Amino acid sequence: MKTPQTLSSKALQNAQPALIQGVDENALVDLLSRGVVQNIPAGSEFVRQGKTRMAGLYMILEGMVGQEENSPSGELLMTCAMGPGEFLGEIDEHGHVTESLSSVSLKAHSACQLMFLSKAMVDQWLEAHATEQAQFMRYLARESSHRKEFASGVVGNA
Q1: For a Cys-Cys bond, which of 19, 105, 122, 141 suits 49, CB 3.0-4.6 Å?
Q2: Are 95 and 139 contacting, i.e. CB atoms less than 8 angstroms apart?
Q3: Is residue 47, in this structure, part of any structural domain at all?
Q4: For residue range 124-143, what is the model confidence (pLDDT) as tens digits?
């Protein structure tokens, strides 16, 4: 496993343009230092809709991940593609990380390096960084809402 300093600087370099611009860099480094790095081979489905219990967030460090959902006719459709700096997970309308079965499938479209942050880790970080909490929650809620809007348009037009 990489050291937190090496990992954090790489994650920050990849994530900074897309990530939470109002969150202090030191607070972000602290968040990333709490996670566990996972390497996912290209083509691997690492979260399965309705089968995988999500109890945290993934942050994409490297690679591309596709979000797939079952259409009303039962077809599996890619509804969103995400890259470095983006977070994946089950999030409520307020941006809180939830613990539930996944509502989508996630597949690595290239070799990926992901960081997994458990719900407990995210909650602890939010408590420790109260000034960043609102900005981070708004970011998660905005991203979740954007993906849902995008997915409904893609599925509706399929």
Answers
A1: 105
A2: yes
A3: yes
A4: 988 888 888 777 777 777 76
